[in-house]
Structure formats: C-alpha cells, structure tokens
Design a protein that fits this description.
The structure is a homodimer. Chain A is mostly beta strands. The first copy, chain A, contains 11 helices and 45 strands. An 8-stranded mixed sheet of chain A has the order 38-39-41-40-42-43-44-45, with helices on both faces. Chain A has a 6-stranded antiparallel sheet with strand order 20-21-22-23-28-27, with no helix packed on it. In chain A, strands 13, 14, 15, 18 and 19 form a 5-stranded antiparallel sheet that branches. In chain A, a hairpin with a 6-residue loop joins strand 14 and strand 15. Chain A is globular and about 70 Å long. Chain A starts with 7 loop residues before the first helix and ends with a helix. Chains A and B meet through strand 16, strand 17, helix 10, strand 45 and helix 11 of A and strand 16, strand 17, helix 10, strand 45 and helix 11 of B.
C-alpha cells in the first residue's frame, strides 16, 4: 500500500518550505489559526468518501478505491482527462477531486464544477447527465436522490424544478423564508428540509417585523451606512415562526396548523420516511415544556402530540427524530431527561394514554407512544451516525469512555446491547459505509496527531490504517499541555483542568499565570485531542514564560444536564466559584506567582473574564475580555431566557451579573476587545460597560475590529492575538 | 470702596475648603476643567452689567451701582425681598441677581425667573410688567426692545407675539428652520434674526433632505437606537439654504429671491437700521467668490450686489455688516482681503460702477459702493464692540499690540485716527456703556490673573479698578510656562511657542517631552493670558517630570490670511514641517531626551498627532490623538472644501494626508480616543484607520466615550486626562 501523504499544505495550494529541525521558536503566524504559516503545524490529512461499501481516497489529482481485503489502491478517476472532457462539453471547470461523490447503487461519480453538477459513468467513461448550478443564490439545498434544489434569494424561498425556477414565498422585508430561525438555537442551522424522497420541501418562514432592530453600522462605505439587524433581546417581543410545506410539482404550499406562534419555538423538523407526516418539537417561550407534535404534511393538520417533557429549569431539544431504516413506524428520540442525552425508541404503531411521570433529572414526561430507553448511564450519546440494517444495529458516538472524547459504538436494537468500536483512548469522528458495515474512523488524542483507519463495525474485522500522521509540533521543543481533575466548589464534582507550562519549566521558579476561560454552556475546552485541546496561543504563551491554565467549570458541556443547569438564573456565579478553585489549585502548585495571575476569554469567556476581574479584583491583575456579555438583558431571547428567564421574572439574577453595576470595582488592567459589528454580543454590551466605567472613574482599555462580527478570523486573528499577547507582556510579566 | 470678592466658588454654590498653603501637588481634579476642585484654581471674578452709563456689580444676593466719581457702591437690588415679591405674585423663582439687566432709559430692572421675565421698577419698588417664558422650546430668541420671542420646536419656527403663539414654518423632517445652518461655518451660530426694531424676523430655512445620513447610534437605550445625522461629506451633495422674513403682526412670510441655493452659502445676515433691507454675504460652493447682496425685506427682491471679492484659495466672510448709529446709509464691512481682517466703510448713498482690482493678499475685489479703508496694518481687528456717537468713534479690539492678545481701541470715523485703550500688555475682553464713554475692561496676561477696570474710552478719564484677582496657582510650587519664537519651516515666519518645564527643572537632566498640538485654522494655542494659555494638563505633566511644548504653526489663527492659507489643498503638510522645527528646537535645548518625545492633540490636533506619529515615526515614540480627522474626504463640505477643495478636484491633496493609506507606518504607541457619537469628526475616521492598521498589521490603541460628542466635558474630561496621562506614564516616561 503506497504511503498516503496528502498534507493540508498542498490541499491549500500553498508552498510549504521544509521546516528546519533546529528552529526552536514559533511565532503567532504558525500558532494562530489564520496565521501565514499555521498550516505548517497541521497534521497530515486524507480526504475520503464511500462508494457503497468501498472506501475511496479523494485527492486533488485523483480518486482511488481501496481494496478492503489487501489495502491495494486502484485509481478510478484522474483529474486532467476529466477536466478536459468537462471543459470540452462546456460544463465548467473541475479544479480537484476532493469532493467527488458516488451515485448510490451505480457506477457513477458526481463531480462538482464551478457551474455544473456532472454525472460521470465510471464504466463507460463518459458524461451521462449534467445539471447547471443555480448561481448567485443563498442556502442552496439539493434535493436528495435528484438534482433539483431549493434556495433563497433575498428573504424569499425559490425552487429549481426540472430546470425551471419558481418562487415559493413572496414576503416583504422583515420576513425570512428558507433560512435558519430562532437565532440558531435548538440545533437549528438551516431553513430548508427536503422530504426523504425529494417530493416535498418543508421550510421555515419567520416574521421578524415586530422585532426591534439593532442598528449595526458599516464604516467601510463612502459614508457609513446603517445595517439594521433584527435582534430580540431577553424579555422583549420576539419573532414568529411558521413551517411551510411546498410541493414543487404542483407549486402549492401549505402551512402547518400549529398553535399560535407567538412566543413559541418550532424546532427539529423531521419527516416520516413516507413523507406523509412531519414532526416538530415545539417549545414554549419559557423553554420548560417541550412537545413532540405530528402533522399531516398534505393538509398541515395536527395529528397528535406524541411526547411531552417539562423541567423546572429548562428543556432543550436539539436533535430531530431518526427513523429506523427497516421500520417506518419506529423512530429514535433523544433527550437528557435522565440527566444525559440518551436514545429512546418510540413506536408510532403503539400509541398509549400515558401518564406524567418523574424523570431522574428533575423533570417530568408524558409518553403517548410506547417508548423504550435504548441507552443509559452517566455518559451521553453525541451523534447517531447511521445503521447496519442487516444486523439491526445503530452506529453512533458517545462519551462512554470519557467525557473528554467521542467513541463510536454499535447498539443492537434487537437485544439492546451495545459495544464500543475502534481505539478506545482517542476522540473519534466517523463516516459510515452504505451498508453500515464499515467506518472510516478519523481519531486523535493527546498522543495521536491524527490516525485514519477503516474499521469494521462488527468489532471483528481487521482494522486497516489509512493514515498515521506525525505531529509537526514534535520537531520543536514546545510546551506539552497536561490535564487533571480538581473538585468543583460544590466539593463533589470532578472538574477537568489543563495546564501548559513553559518547555524549560523549573518548579522552583515563580511564573505568571494566564487562565484561559470559556465557562458557558455548549462548550468544552479540555478534550482528549492534540494538546488536550490547547490552542496555539496557549503554547505560544507557555513558550514565552507563562503558565496557561484552563478549567471546564460546572455549566460547561458533555457532563450532563445537572452539571450544566446548576447555573440556571444566575449565569456566572457558580462558574466563577469553580474558576476560583482553579486559582486555588494554581497557587497550591508553588510555581505560580500569586501576584501575577491574568485571565482571558471570549464571548461567554469574555463575560467570565470581566466578571472575574471585577469580583475577584485582588486576585486578577490583568484580563483581556473578548466580545463579552456584560448584561444578560442585552442578549437575545432564545439563549438568554433559557438560562436566565426574563429580566422581569428574574430581576435579582439579571442584576447580580449585570457588570455595568460593578464597573467601579475594576482595579486591575482589563482590555475589552470586540468586533465592531458583532451581531451576537452586540456592541451595546461593551459600550454600556465603558460608559459605566467612565462614570465610576475606572479605566478599562478597549479595542474594536471594524467590520468583524463575533469572532476575528483569518489575518485579523493573528492581529488580535498579537494584541492580546502584548497586553499581558506589558502588564502581567 | 469695599473689597470685591465674589469668587467663582460661591457662584457655583459649592463649598470651598480653604486650600492649605503646604499642599504641593495638584491632581487632575484641580487642574482639569470638569474636575471636582477645578474651581479652586480659578481667579476671582465679578459679574457686571451697564445701567446706561452706570456700571453695576451683579452678585448672587445683590446688585450694586458704582459711582464713577468716587467708586462708592450703592446696593440697588437685594435678592431676598425680590424673591419673595416675585414668588407672591406667582411669577416663579428668582435664584440670583447675576444676570439682571436694565431697561434702556428707564429706572427698571429686567429679572429672569425660571418661568417669567419680570420688569421691576427701581423707584416704585414694584413689578410693573411680567412676561411668561415659553418653556420647552429651543433657540428662543427674544425680540429686541420688547418681550415677544421667536423659537423652534422640532424642526420648525414659531413666534410668540402679544401672548399668542403661531407657527411660522411647517416643514417635514429633513428640513430645519430657525436654526444655525452650514454647520456653523462663516461665523454662523444661530438661525433667528430679529430686525433692529423688532418688527420682523429673518430666519434660516435649510433643506437637508438630499443630504446623506450619518448613522450615529445611541447605546444608552434599552436596545441601541439609530440617531441619523445629516452629514454632507466633502464632494458629496450638500443642503440648500433659504432665508425667510416673517412679519409677526401680519403672520406673513416671504423668502428672499436669491440665486439657486444649490451649492451656495448664505452667510452673515444683516438688517438695515430701518428694517427695509436685508444683506447677505453669499458664497459659491468653491468658496472663492463672495458677494454682498442687498435684498428688499418686504418683497424679497434682490436690490443690488454691493461688493464682490475673489481669491484663488478661498474667501471667508465671518462678520455681518455694522451700521453706523448716526448714519443709516453707512456700514462697516470686514474682510482680510489685504491680508488681515480690517474695517472698510461703505456708503449706500454712494453707489459706483467699480472695477475689479487686485488686493494685496492675492485676491480681487469689486466695490460697487464708495468704500474707505478704516484700519490697516499687519494686525487684525478682532471685534467691533460698539460706538461713541457723540465723538463719532468706533470701539473695538485688535491684535495691534501683539498677535497673542486683544487690545481695545477707539477709531475716530471722522479723521480715521485710532488710539489704544487700557493696559497694553494684556489680553482684554470689554463691555461698552450705553453712550460708549466707558468700558468694563476684563483683562489677563501671563502675569495678571484677572483685573477688571472701568476705563474711559477717551483715554483720559481715570481708570477705576473693580477687581485685582490673585492667582490661586501662586500658592503652589507650580511650573511656569514660558514663551518665545522660532522660525517656521519657510525660514522667514516667526512662530510662537510655549514651553512648560518641571518646577524643579534641572537643565543638566534629560526630560521626556510631550508636544501638545492643535495646528488647524481658527485656533491659537499661545496667548498672553494666564500661563500663556497653557492648560491645566500642561502644568500637571510638567509637575510630573515632562517638558510640555506647544507651537502655533502656520495655518493657525490671528496671524493673517497668508499665514493661514499656505496650507491650502494640503492640510497637514506645512503644519507638520513647522512642528518639526519645534522638535529641532526642543532637541537643541539639551534638556529634552530625543528618544522620549510624545505628542497629543484633539480634533485637528488629533489629525496632526496621528500624522506626526506616521510621518516622523522615528521621532515620536508615543502619541494620543483625540477625535482625529483621518481622511478629509470624510469631513464635512463647508470646512473641508474651503481648505482642501473636493476629493474630485484635489485627489493628490486628499490622498497625501489620508492617514488610512499610511497605517502601516505606525511604529510608536498611538492611542486614539473619540466620542462614540462625535458628529464633527464622525467615528468613521477612526474606524477606517483602525481597519487599515489591522490590515497592515500595526497596533494602535483605542478608546471611546459612549454618548460623548466631539469633546469630553465635565467629569468625562477628568477621566479622559487621567487616561491620557497614564498612557504617557506607561510608555514615554
């Protein structure tokens, strides 16, 4: 088997000078994403896809199928002749073969040029079909098993059907159709949902006309221009969402006859395999009562409420239904009602009266279908990847081995037993073959830069290695992050920390320490991946004489519902208590100078940073807070009210962590940095904090990236981390 | 004569603790305007007014007339009984007597309460008349010799006439009536002009509907709100101005039949004494051709063009006509056509054909009336204060003694001779008695904290001293600013500088130096006033070990037209050359450390600071630029095009000092500070500079004051100077 060595560098078409072994110091250009030479530190990578059950390596120049018996590679596609053939046919430019796909059950490849989708017959070696891409549109969503597509232009939805475009919605400004709604909460990230057979298109339609505009300003035009952005703030009037179903053949559209969409969330749209039903998990504005509702996709009529769940704090549905491929009446519902996200099998053919019953995580549920819990334990299912229909197994990933990683598993739906697949001590990302018999298993750990294996899902087949990437960082004398656990402020819960010390670490010295913090829900900083998830900046700072420390406090993700929701109505408070346990630990090591402790974080981490600087102003000398939340009343409805309720119903909670009220407590050096056009933590957070500091006579520092949104990307990120580093160098070192 | 000792402290109603003599260091709270204790450093002050030819001292509690023969004071009004009388009559609250005035030719005082104008008979000791104030309106302008008023509500003009309000204009949003136009250039600072006898009201009416909005944002509302501000940028479409004349008695309004108001400025509205004519100095958009035009105030018809003036660079009319009180046919026109602002007498009764003739400052003029130049010389008239009709003398102030100060003079209009009045070596501010025989002369110099004298304008009468204020700074061991001159970069022109050294100055030491710079037109930093015009911050910095230096470069004011207009079409270039002469001088002293030179300035001075940091980046180590112009294309039409023409007609000039193009040249530490709602140098200047620096990989620092406009006032100013000081302390010291 020839060595696979397609490195990211060549993929990015950049010239990569060989890195001299003697080179010892790395700059932010290497260590920061967006840096000119950041690619030089990335482990090798191989692009792959499945052709039925055959793995295919897709490179720039060629695609090669791998023989699962002996590992031999056979080139099946070569760029140059294909490129010429396609060009001669006037079907655009094919620039690489990395994203080639295959038509299910046929010896045909699907190639994307800049203008067409081209179907190439691998046997006949000719082009059998071609479909022009609809250009200049947004959110283009191809039909499954076909070549039509739905997309948006402006704020309306369109469909290209049999080569003809028609407009589906015709709504005025203030409405959005075919786009993600509810500010991407509840796992929502798109607004177009083709039915499984491709005959119908469900779509979101959102009326935002009643939502207040946040006045964003574009300062790059000849004279600055207003860019109004609908932003519903906690407690304020929110948008209304409708779910439409369009039949492209008849060009008819109906809307689901849901309850009043005022203050109601319509999440996790799922189709029944026969396309006759559509399922929505609906949630009240208070987000403490979820209902799984079945609708008739032809009439829009409600058929039944299938499942309900309540919780005194919040219920957060994030996953659509997954139907069993071999039984259209059964689907898997995911909920963390027992404390961790687990799988429940529900049977449409077995409706029942049900009774409200207590769930172990503090909520209640009402099962209107016969329901079987499939997985359980103090770990959570992260992803359903697919099925093996022949063995009646579900293939997914979970945190069963460790909350710091995802491991593949196969769950037998006949007997309820499950087994782990692949190398245990690593974090896996997998892709399943058509039959479900094999996975391409891409995994990393603190010790594994990147391995890609082909693994049999039955746990018995021989594992074939496609790539064992070396870690380009190994050639440098770089700091090695370490991890461990300490007890949370509750005295019981184990929290993971990561510490990165200078490579020439001397335990008898006293080092300045920087705590990098996030601390909010839906994120985890410490993972069993390269450097335990430490960023290039952690490495850089440690390389420059700092101890860099991160702690995943209670409230962060992958540790279950109770770990997360202890922060309810008081975001920041418990999180900071845990962070102070981290500070205690740092001080106890003896090698951290207690007079030189700094803190840095972005977004929720910016909120934590600012809050820590104000609350523990004798501990933290220097902080850099990026895109911070300053006052939860200025944050949006969906995320904000889930964790904080409304300013009206939780005045103490909002007041307690409204940092403008504590601007006078600033003692150390605090620099706040924001994207001047941040649509997530709108600039008003920081502007009101600066005003409060000015009024209180305190002196924060401030910087802003004009044109940037919530995060700085590309070259701006290198500029940003140069800036952040300088601040610690100026004031902490 | 009893000692006059009304100090500003008691006027401000603040408690003033006696300042201990031993106190040596002063904080920014004392030294910065807006500081809690700034009043403690202000010299004493006396409020005065004229009652015909009798001077009156107006205090909080009483008003006393001064006998000009012997200086004796007689109390003529006492607050408490008046306050009671007025309250009993239900005419509001009289809180002090500082702003009392007197009815011309009568023994009556005019008192302002919070709700009424009250006329009090000094003989009968009773209230004879009262007029309710129109409350909740803007730009209230009282009728001369009467108690009616004109004012604005929203964007329209209203008149209160004989106790009844009527609306004069009814224009939609985008129009402004009765308010200042042309962004307060050309000496314009109001929009309501009562005729001399009070029978008619002339007013500005401006159509801004075609002007682009600058999107200012108010971040203090529950959700930030847009505050659009009409801002015509250089080269872009500007507003149109109309001049209306309203007759309150008939409630009829006519508009002057001027030339097309597109790209035309209507400046310096003046009435004829008989109210039959109105005069406008009109200017083309290029601002190089001024025309004095006479209109019929009843019909609005143009009567005649009386005077024209052109200049290859610009003509800048800033003063309305001044009619002689004893001859309604003669008025004084002010122009710097001969290089300095001087007085020209024009006679309406002597029209003439005239011919275009060259003026000594490089322009041309056409006199259509017989014209007599009244003053001449390399100095300028600053103000016409009034007349003495009996001697046919004009009383004014000029820079004849020194460009650093104003001195009163009397000009005999019969024989053309003039003489200076009062103490020569000081800067004067005067108020003329009714007959013109006396002035109340308030003067200061580097050595005089504040004197107030009563001086006879005939130059012969005995001078009576009302106040010789001590300088509260004298009790501290404070740095003493010094001044001198150096040659400009042209090798010829003398430029004034001011240097402030630490009070414990040692010429053998090397000090860090901060250059405080303005440098733009219409301002002069060095004056013969207390501390030669040095700010409290100059003193503070010198007190903390810095040498503080300021140079009034070519382009600044009070030195004549050619001194000013050498910067035409290249704002910044000549100015910086001169500033570098200042740096050369500083280095030549031997006591300035050439490696620790900083610079600070605001507005035009912020532009200069940023420009110097980029252009002479090996010289300047640290800069703080406030509210800077970064790119003249983003500045407004009137000021911008006067000095720079348009971006289309002067691309090289605009490019040459567009600092975004040189963002990559930043080497030192530069902090830019702006008011987040600056309507003068809009935030786009700094935002585009920050973007350019980010793109170029340079690292300016930035701070903004939310809610503040072009300058920080009150407490914010103390915060600002604390911040600026800290920056120099961190990086320059």
């Amino acid at each position: 088997m020839k060595k696979l060595s397609i490195i990211l560098g060549t993929i990015c078409m950049m010239a990569l000078p060989a890195m001299a072994q003697e080179k010892k110091t790395l700059t932010l250009e290497e260590l920061i994403l967006g840096g000119n030479r950041n690619f030089s530190l990335q482990p090798e990578y191989v692009f792959t896809t499945w052709w039925g059950d055959k793995p295919v390596i897709t490179d720039v120049e060629s695609a090669s199928v791998i023989n699962l018996k002996n590992g031999e590679q056979t080139t099946i596609l070569t760029l140059e002749p294909l490129k010429k053939l396609i060009k001669d046919e006037g079907l655009g430019n094919l620039s690489h073969l990395m994203s080639v796909e295959f038509v299910k059950g046929q010896n045909k490849a699907i190639l994307q040029t800049n203008t067409h989708t081209v179907i190439y017959d691998l046997d006949k070696k000719n082009i059998t079909e071609s479909y022009p891409l609809v250009l200049g549109v947004q959110n283009r969503t191809p039909q499954p098993n076909g070549y039509n597509s739905a997309y948006t232009k402006g704020n309306n939805l369109y469909v290209m059907w049999d080569g003809k475009e028609h407009q589906v919605t015709n709504d005025p400004e203030g409405w959005l159709c075919g786009q993600s709604v509810h500010r991407n909460e509840f796992g929502i990230n798109n607004g177009i949902f083709w039915s499984p057979k491709g005959n119908l298109v469900a779509f979101y339609r959102m009326d935002q006309s009643m939502v207040t505009d946040y006045p964003q300003v574009n300062t790059s035009t000849r004279i600055s221009t207003l860019v109004p952005d609908k932003y519903p703030m906690a407690g304020m009037t929110s948008h209304k969402v409708y779910v439409g179903i369009h039949n492209p053949a008849t060009q008819k559209t109906i809307y689901l006859k849901t309850a009043d969409p005022t203050d109601r969330y319509f999440t996790n749209i799922s189709w029944s395999p026969d396309e006759k039903n559509i399922f929505i998990i609906e949630l009240n504005r208070d987000q403490n009562h979820a209902e799984l509702i079945q609708y008739n996709s032809e009439t829009g009529e409600k058929i039944a409420t299938l499942y309900e769940e309540t919780h005194p704090k919040y219920v957060e549905p994030e996953y659509p239904l997954t139907f069993l491929p071999w039984d259209d009446s059964k689907f898997i519902y995911q909920t963390q009602r027992e404390g961790y996200n687990h799988l429940f099998l529900m049977d449409l053919n077995q409706p029942q009266q049900g009774i409200w019953k207590d769930c172990s995580a503090g909520g209640k549920c009402l099962e209107k279908l016969k329901t079987t819990q499939l997985t359980k334990g103090n770990w959570l299912v992260k992803e359903i990847v697919g099925f093996n229909s022949s063995t009646k197994e579900l293939i997914g990933t979970s945190t069963e081995v460790s909350p710091l990683q995802s491991n593949p598993f196969a769950l037998n739906l006949t007997n309820g037993k499950h087994r782990l697949i692949g190398f245990l001590n690593a974090n896996h990302s997998i892709s399943l073959s058509e039959s479900g018999k094999y996975i391409i298993d891409n995994y990393t750990s603190a010790n594994i830069a990147r391995n890609i294996d082909i693994v049999s899902t039955n746990g018995k087949g021989k594992t074939m290695n496609l790539l064992t990437a070396s870690n380009p960082m190994d050639q440098y004398n770089l700091p090695k992050p370490e991890i461990g656990t300490i007890k949370a402020a509750d005295g019981v819960t184990d929290l993971y920390y990561r510490i990165t010390k200078p490579s020439d670490f001397d335990p008898n010295k006293k080092y300045p320490a920087v705590i990098y913090v996030y601390g909010g829900p839906h994120a985890q900083m410490i993972t069993n991946t390269r450097n335990y998830g430490a960023s290039g900046w952690d490495i850089y700072m440690a390389n420059h004489g700092y101890v860099v420390f991160t702690l995943d406090n209670r409230g962060s993700s992958n540790r279950g519902l109770l770990f997360e929701n202890c922060t309810f109505r008081n975001l920041g408070t418990e999180e900071m208590k845990d962070q102070m346990k981290g500070v205690e630990f740092l001080k106890s090591t003896g090698f951290v100078d207690p007079d030189r402790i700094g803190v840095h974080g972005w977004s929720f981490g910016g909120f934590m940073t600012t809050n820590l600087m104000l609350t523990y102003n004798d501990i933290f000398k220097v902080g850099v807070a990026g895109g911070p939340v300053i006052n939860w009343a200025l944050y949006e409805v969906m995320y904000g009210e889930r964790y904080m309720d409304t300013p009206e119903s939780n005045p103490e909670g909002y007041k307690g962590n409204n940092l403008t009220l504590r601007a006078g407590d600033l003692k150390g050096k605090l620099q706040i940095i924001i994207g001047a056009n941040d649509p997530v933590c709108v600039p008003q957070h920081t502007m009101s904090f600066l005003r409060a500091c000015i009024d209180a006579g305190t002196q924060p520092d401030f910087f802003t990236y004009p044109g940037d949104e919530h995060n700085m990307r590309g070259r701006d990120r290198v500029h940003l981390y140069t800036r952040i580093t300088q601040y610690f160098e100026d004031y902490l070192k």
